[in-house]
Amino acid sequence: IQNPVATMQEHTDKVRCMEYSAATNQLLSLGSDATLRQWNLGDQGSSLSSIRVEELEDATDLVAMGLSDEYHLVAVGASEGTTLYDLRQEDALVKHIPSLDRDCGVRCLTFNRSLLTSGGGGGSVGFWDLRSSKLRKCPDGKNFMQCSTSDMRGNTMEFWIQQDIEPPQAAYTIQYDQYNSKMFVGGGPLMTGLAGCYASIWG
After folding, report:
1. Which of 78, 62, 72, 71 is nearest to 17 (CA)?
2. pLDDT tens across 78-127, in order?
3. Which DSSP category does 159 fall into?
4. Distance CA 183, CA 169 (A)
5. Residue 53 to residues 30, 35, 37, Cα–Cα distance (Å)
6. How far is CA 97 from CA 52, 117, 189, in A?
7. What is the side-by-side strand order in the sheet with 81-85?
8. Rounded to the nearest 5 degrees, what angle is found at the Cα of 172, between the Cα atoms of 112 and 62?
9. Within 10 Å of residue 195's Cβ, how many Cβ atoms?
10. Which of the ends of the chain has fewer CB neighbours closer than 10 A, N or C?
């Protein structure tokens, strides 16, 4: 790949996420301009034409998006939580799911069959069951799993030590293996002035 075959310029701010639908040969883009845009790809992706623009109500920290072709749903994560959309409908909004990390928002989203997994800025990993329309309980009875803290460094670490608080690890990416038996979570500190990394495999 040397040169782009098509360019879109309709977003007026940063493009934060993109998803491709193999079922419809369409592209979705999420922008900091508080819009979710749906695009039709030409033959072999040779062109882009706008199909729909959805104005988003929760417009703060729009950094996460997931797509389920099976359930015809788009999940958009922001500061207040995750919003589900069905772009086949005129009124596309389906449901709003409050963030498990209310002060840190949603940082990543991924669909795994009927399960929508979200990672929060405070390290919470939640599992929304699309069939029952509620959070699935974890083995310990809680509504979420928590990323553990690990070594961090930075010029604000002294502040956290003085407060006797361990700064949380944000979950920035979640992926399942091909058998859907293991889950990888990767991330790092969300707070300004801190550096570090987090990676784990859950079974």
Report:
1. 62
2. 999 999 999 999 999 999 999 998 778 999 999 999 999 999 998 899 99
3. H
4. 17
5. 10, 6, 5
6. 23, 12, 24
7. 64-68, 73-77, 81-85, 93-98
8. 90
9. 12
10. N
